[in-house]
Structures are given as structure tokens and as C-alpha cells.
Amino acid sequence: MLETFETASVAYAPGTPQPGRAAYDLITAERFEAARQEITTWSGYAPTPLVELSALASRLSVASIIYKDEGPRFGLGSFKALGGAYAVLKVLHHEIEKAAGHAVPMADACNGKYADIAGQTTVISATDGNHGRSVAWGAQRFGMPCRIYIHAEVSEERAIAMRALGANVTRIDGDYDASVALTRKEGEENGWFIVSDTSWSGYTETPSEVMAGYGVMTHEINQELNRAPTHVFLQGGVGGLAASVTAALKQHWGDDSSRVVVVEPELAPCLLMSAKAGEATVAVIEEETLMAGLSCGAPSKLAWAILEQEASDFLTIPEGVVGPAVRLMARPLEGDQPLDTGESAIAGLAGFICAAMQEELRKKIGLDENSRVLLIGSEGVTDRSLFDKLMAAG
Ligand SMILES: Cc1ncc(COP(=O)(O)O)c(C=O)c1O
Fold first, then answer.
1. What is the pTM of this model?
2. Residue 246 in contact with residue 233, Cβ under 8 Å?
3. Which residue's CA is the nearest one to ligand 1's atom 10?
4. In a mutational test of the pocket of ligand 1, which residue from 291, 378, 386 has the highest number of ligand atoms less than 8 Å from its CB?
5. What domains lie within the chain, and their CATH numbers?
6. Ligand 1 atom closest to Cα of 214?
């Protein structure tokens, strides 16, 4: 079952971790805490499970593996539920305070007291599925119009899920980066508020709030542990997830924090390329990866600024490990809990298994029988037909 990982072709680039303030200054502790205080009051909030994969740990000769299963998050299927919706609320709250000319409690932005302002505050976003679903859910919750742009390869199932939340969903011809570019243009031309999970020069405030929202997940993990994992394997799209988890771990555990390993699809390796170039670098996407949430050509500037200082290792994984990793989670080694996962959720896991099984990589990344590994299962099954196809193939 694990042979595929042993022979998979994995690209590696070392990071250049260095002392710096990015993990503290770009998403401050206050910002993480404000997001946590707000989001944990929302109806439907419950910490997601942290699952121990003991049989797999023993098979791979590491001390422990824990897998944060974001499938149940707010019934939306992914960790993204935490970020986009919270950033939508921050936009609305800001507009309300601007119009009122004085401070307004956050609760009043949520409870319909300013429904007229909410109704005139249109949010707009590009997405490959999960972020848009969160933005649409937030907009519906707070009574705001919402426009979402998706690219040609985003599954219709994902578009339907966003329309069901009241979003106006437009499919474009190009790829994810083209949908981001169109969002910027339309947002600026129409006075709509861009709620993006990626950032660029001059646009960092909202993405920083999105990443602060993701911090709820890392806070829950930190509360369950009495010491930091030695390693965390984090899948990267634009890098927002990886940077948020990295910053929240660092702020909690300080110098004892985990070694950060970033894992991307080999078809969308913008963070590995950035590590090699020593600066944020765009990757040309020639073919879409199965890991739809990770199909991003341009790194988030904000995320890269954190990962540049904090990440030790960058990996890419081939498409061929996606099916085996999804199947391994659904039909695990005896003793481990079966989990249905999405194809982007298992990228960190797949990168870790490859690293644990390939001697040279194992050494480079410092994995051994004392390693305590954290994985973020960033989504449940958000595309049922793809999941069924992957399951049937093995
Ligand atoms: C399920 C899932 N995992 C991971 C990611 C990657 O997050 P980021 O783009 O912030 O790196 C995404 C992005 O959409 C996602 O949907």
C-alpha cells in the first residue's frame, strides 16, 4: 500500500530559516485572538478532531502522527470556513463604523442592526472552491451581496455549493490566477470589496484577517498538546494556510516550535520556486493538479514573507500519490481511524510519507523515531465525484 510513496519522485529545496519578526508582526497575536474570540461565538462552532494515527506512525518509524481533521468545520467541509467568512465580517464592520462615525460593537454587524449597510456592501472573490464557499457563507450570514469568480477547472459541484449559499458565481476561461486578476479589476471598477485569501503589494489587510481566522484551528491544536510537534507538514496553495499555522505555532511555542515543511503539487510549485529563487516567484501552471485547492501560480506576498523566515524545507509531490493517500486515509492500517478526505487535504500527509520512506529525504528533514508529526487535514470530501473516482481506482 505504501510502495507508491517510497518510489515517488519528490523535488526538494531547503528553506533558509532565519531570526525575524514576520511570524509575530504580519499576523499579530492580537489579531489572532480577536478572530478567535469572534469565530468561537458563531453558532455551529465546535473544535474539529485531532486524530492520532498510531499504526501509521509505527509503520513509518516515527514517535507519533496527529492529523487535524477540518472536514467537519462549520458544515462547510474545510478550514477555509474560518478565514473568508471572518474577513467578510471585518469588511462589513469597518463599513458600518465608517458610516456611523463611531465605534460599533462587532455583535451589531452580525445581528442585522445595520442591514441597510450590509445590503449595499458587495464582496467579491476568486476561488478554487473552499475559500469562495466561506466568503459566500459569511455574506449570506451577514446579509451582503456576494460575487464569486471560478476558473475553468473548478468542479460544478463546488459552484453549486456556492450558489446554494446565495452567491452570484461566474466561471471564467482561464486559471486560478486569471480569476484573481479579474476579481481585482471588477472590484476596483465597481466599488466592490475584495475578500481574497491571497495578497499582493498594497493589499494585505483583508488577507491578514483571513489568515487570522485560520488561527482558530492552530489554537485548538495548541490547546490539546503539552509540547510542540517536532515537524509540521503544510500543504501550500498561495501559502496562506502554511503561513498562518506557522505563525500561530511560533507565537505559542517560541523557539521550541515545529520544523516547518511546505508541500505542494509538482504542477503548482510556486513556494518551492520562491525558496529556490530567494524571493516570491510565480510558477506557470501548465496543467491543473487534482489537488484543486493547491493549484496556485502566484504566492501570497504576505504568506511568503512569513514562510521565507520560518520554513525549513519545501517539497513537491507528484499526482500519482494523491489517490493512494486518499485511499490510505479511508482504508487505513489496522488500528487507525478511517477518514474520508479531500484531495488537497492529504498533500501534507503524502509529502510526509514520501519523506519518511525515502532515506535521503528522511535524513535531510531530520525525521527519526523521536519525531512527532503534525498534519493538517485541510478538507473533508468537498468534491464527492472526484473522491468516488479516486476510491474506485485502488
Ligand atoms: C483544502 C485546502 N487545503 C489547502 C489549501 C491551501 O491554502 P493556501 O492557498 O492558503 O495555501 C486550500 C486552498 O484553497 C484548500 O482549499
1. 0.97
2. no
3. 240
4. 378
5. 3-79+207-392 (3.40.50.1100), 84-196 (3.40.50.1100)
6. 10
